Amino acid sequence: MFNAKKEVDNIVKFIKDYFDNNKLKGVVLGISGGKDSAVVAALFSKALGSENVLGVTLPCHSIESDKSDAKLISDKYGFELINLDLTNTYDSFLNEINKLGNFSEKELRNSNINLKPRLRMSSVYYLAALYSELKGGTYIVCGTSNKCELYVGYFTKGGDSTYDIGVLNDYTVEEVIQIGEYLEVPEKVLYKTPNDGLSNLSDEDKLGVKYKDIASYINNEEINKEVKNKITRLHNSSMHKFNIPVYKRNK
Fold it and tell me: What pTM does this model have?
C-alpha cells in the first residue's frame, strides 16, 4: 500500500539534507500549471520554506490558462512566481533559422517542439544564477519529471532533462497524484489532463500509450501485448538520452 505521508516525509528530509550538506539556499523551477510542477513546488516549499522557492511561468505560444493555474499553485503555497515570456525569443530564433533555407512545417516540427523546453532550461538556469546573487546564497534548478515519463524517454535532451535535483523521478503518475492529494494540491491542477503546454497535444496523445499502462509495465503487471511492445520500443529507442558515450583513449 502506497503511503503518501511517509513518502512526503522522506522526500522533504532528502531535500533538507541535500541543501544543508551543500550549503544551498533556494530553488528555481518552471511552473507549468500541471500536477508534476505543482507537487514539486509544494514539496520544496515544505522543505525549504516558500521564501526560498522561485516559480517561473515561461509561456511560448502556450495555453493562456496555464498561467492562471500556475498562480493558483503559488497562491496556495506562498512562493514567489514570476513570468518570463519566451514567445518573442522563440520567434526571433525561428526567423534566423528561416534564413538557412526554405524548410517545410513537417521538417521543422520536431525541432520547434524541442526548442521550447531548451529555451526554458536556459531561462531557469539564468534566473538561478541571478537569484544566487540577489539573495546571497546558491539557488539551484529542480526537475519535475516523473518515473513514467522518464522510462519512455518523454523529455528533451538539453531541456527538461537538465536540472540539479529531482524528487519525482521514482514515482509513477498515480503515485504523484496521491502525493499531491496529501499535499492538498488544488484539484483543478492535480487532475488536469497532462500536456506539455506547447504542442496542443496531451502527453498520452504524443506517446501513443497511457501512463497507467506504463506504470503497469514498470511494475511487471499484465497489459495488452501491443501496448507492451509499444512501451518497449519507446524505452529502447530513447536509451541514447540516458547514456552519453565518452571516448576514453588507450594509455
Answer: 0.94
